[in-house]
Structures are given as C-alpha cells and as structure tokens.
Amino acid sequence: MHPLPLSRAPRAALLALVGLLALPACSDDDDNNTPDAGQPDSGTPTDAGTDAGTDAGTGDGGTGGVADPANWPRDFSCEGKEQATLTFNPGEEQELQDAVNALVECTTIQLGAGTFQFDNAITIRANGITVKGAGKGAQGEATGGEASTVLDFSNAAANTNGLDVVGKLFTVTDLTVWNAKKDGMRIESSSNVFIQRVRTEWSQENLESNGKYGIYPVKSTYVLVEDCEAYNAADAGIYVGQTTHTIVRRNVAKKNVAGIEIENTKFAHVTNNTATDNTTGLVVFDLPGNPIRGTDIYVAHNTITGNNRPNFASVEASSSTVSQVPAGTGTFILASRRVEFEHNTWGDNNTVDIAILSGLAIEADPVQWAPGFFNYPSADIYIHDNTFTGGSGGRVDNGTPDAERRPLGALVGAVYAYGAAVHDSPGVEHVLWDGIDPAPRNESLSNPINICVTGNTLPEGTRSALVDFDLQAVGGHLLSPTPNVAAAWEETRRYEQGAAPYNCSGFSPALTIR
C-alpha cells in the first residue's frame, strides 16, 4: 500500500501527534541502550543501479561539457552579425524601457552605477542580449554606489517580475535586483544563459509576501549561475528548474526558505556554494506532473550549515513541498536519482543534515508521476568524503514542530523526542532515509535504492550515520486513532558508517560531470 501523503493526513491525527512531542525524561528498564539494538541482519549490499540504463546521459555523452561553459553547444550566435551597445544611467528608466521594448538581437545594455527605479518588469524577448551593470554591491545595499547598480522594483506593479527574459544567448552581470514583486529574475524557455555576479534581495526578512524566487532560470538549457547572491526569497533564493545542463557555482544563498534548489533538472554541477541561515540549504528534487526526469546531479565543495530559519513560505503561494520543510534541514533529496555528494560540509542544522525522500511522501498516487515516467523513486545516492561537523539533529523544526503545516517534521520530532527520553538518543542521524521506495515495499532488498554513505568525516563519538526511518510504518503508528510512539521508534533502524548495506561505492556508470 502506498503511504498517505503527510499533507493529507487526517486533521485529528495530526493534532493528536502534538501531544506526543512533550515527553517526560524517563528511563526504560527493559532497554539495553545500545543504539543498534534490534537491527536486522543487513545481508549483502545491493546495487540498485536504478537508472544506469536509461538516465545515464545516453545520446550526448552525459554532460555536453557541463562543467565548462566554453564547451557548451549553441543554437544562436552573434558572430558576424551587427552588434550594438545602448547605455543608460539612473533617471533614464523610461528610455531604457522603450529601448527594451524595441530590442533587436545582439544588443548590449550597459547600465551605469546608481539606482534605477522601475514601476514594471524589464521584459526581454530577443536573442543575443547582454545586460551589464557596474557591480552587485553588498548584502543589504538598497541603493547603488559608485561601483554598483541597483534595479529597484519596490514601486512596481503587483505580481510582476524584475527581469523577465525569454531568449537565446542571454547574459546578465554585475547588478542587483531589489524588492521585485514576484521573482527577482525569471528566465524561461531560454538557452545559453549566463548569470554572473548578480544579487537578488528583498528588504525585509521572513515575509511570506516577499517574492518567491530570487534567481529563477526555468525550462531552459545550458545555464550558468556563478558568483551570485540571493537573500530573503519566500521560496528559493537560487532555483534552477526543468533544465538540462546547468552549473551553479560560487554563489551565496542566505535568509531564504530554500537556499538553492535543483528541480526536475538533468546534468547539474553544483559546487563551491554557501547556503546558510535558510530554512533548508540545498534541495535536489523532482515534482509530479513534469515530463523532465531529473538525473545526474554532482554536488561538491559546498558549505551547508546553520540552516535554521523558520519556514516563512506561503502555504497558498509557495510550492507545497517547500512550505512543508522543517526548519533546520540542511539538504533534502526527493524523487531524485544519480546524485553524488563529495567534499561538502554540513553542520548545525537543527533537524537533519541530509534527508532522502520518496516522491510518494508528497504525492502518493503514482499516476500523477506518469509525465516524468513515474519518477517518484529516489535512487543511487552517493554520499562520500564529506565533513559533518556536528551540532545537527537535536532540535527538529527548531523545537516548534507544526503537525498541520510541516507534518514530516512533527513525525520526526515525536519519534526523536521519545528516543531522547527513553533511549538516550543524541538526535537525528546525519542522513535520514524515509524507507518508502520502492513501492510496494520489497523487504527482500537490503538497500533497495542504493544509498551509499562512506568515507565521510563524522564528529567524534558519532554512534550512527544513517537511519532508515520507515516513514510509512512510523506514520501508521503515530497517525492512528491511538498513537503509539514506542512502536514507531521500534520501526526505525540505525547504521554506523561503513556498515552494510550502505557501505557501497556509488553507482554505475559513474557521473562524468565533475
């Protein structure tokens, strides 16, 4: 039986769950206090190899040179064509808008230093366009200086973006988009997109009325997001969605609900970014109803720490997935496959450093996943040679779980509150797997989706690195008319790093997008 999506769990059961979160500090005389007591014989590791034959990059070598934009193929070029540069300074906003409305291909728009005030989006619908400012300035700077350009949309019409672009060979550099009413920078159905040294920001923190996305390339191919910053977005600071081939590197995402999101995307290279002080730092996921089956995601040399900001996403306006994320989630992987993490740093994320979830946790009907070839399972997740600094997993959802708005956090919080009181559990393990895939559950497979957790640096004294949370069984106990938290705890299984079956060495064929 497929699990009930937590967002649809009965209200009465969710409210009853709240009562489980306040547990007395007590001991269980029958408990032997061994973290792995009752752990089943793991057997021989099983390499699921879920998508090796279908999503391993067949047809284009797997990468198209994804790690080097110089190697990207282009379906438009300005070479040999007439090119023009138009220069504008603050106070010439209307002239700029008039020029944008009449743009011809292969035009560069040079923006002077200072602050531009706009009452509507800058809408670009031409190929070969470059927009250049004088610099992106620093976090919190609402006005441009001698070496920075700020595009201020504070007085723009409701529900409009800042920059709104559709085009081939689009470049934007060295500017800030401030207080956009909707998305700071929306680039859709475009190819060869270069976003460099851009800052998107909203003036106030933690407002669900802030724009949803800071930097938002979507439904595009060959996208570079580099040396950018994003602050205070009510959904995601930096979001690459429904895209094929992307590099997201050397960016900073802070004070957003989600720092960086990679959604329904194939061949992503996510490196050297900093995601801190968000609700969740880095997200890799597919959503139902989308024909792009995300795969081949390389995540390396990122810092994902201290992501404990309360979730301020609007339940109505935001994607339901993001609005349900518990505060304190370093990274979550949902309905994703062939994802490799190495040389990253996690720590001080109150709920968990990494959560691996099935798409069935948010949408239990497999038919809804048909457009993406039933892409709800997560599979082939390789977590190796990273550093976990500690301080994570001890205060699920910052200690204030909301069973209706963030039910997963409430379930995890209830189980681990019991674990702390009765089993001396130090908190959620560094990696949490929901235990759902494959569905219906096949108990004969010891590691059915091929999660590999090896060679990571863990805090001294770490008992276990990974937990099979078995969300379906746990939810059955906690969401029943008579919740049983002790039985829910017994459904979970903990594993030390290096223990079978999670001591596998990746997936085959290996990623080629390093």
Automatic annotation (TrEMBL):
The keyword Ribosomal protein does not apply. Keywords: Signal. Residues 56-65 have a biased composition (Gly residues). The keyword Signal applies. It holds the Pfam family Beta_helix. Transmembrane segments: none annotated. Residues 1-27 form the signal peptide. Residues 43-55 have a biased composition (Low complexity). It comes from Pseudomyxococcus hansupus. Gene3D superfamilies: Single-stranded right-handed beta-helix, Pectin lyase-like (2.160.20.10). This is Right handed beta helix domain-containing protein. SMART domains: PbH1. Residues 29-77 are annotated as: Disordered.
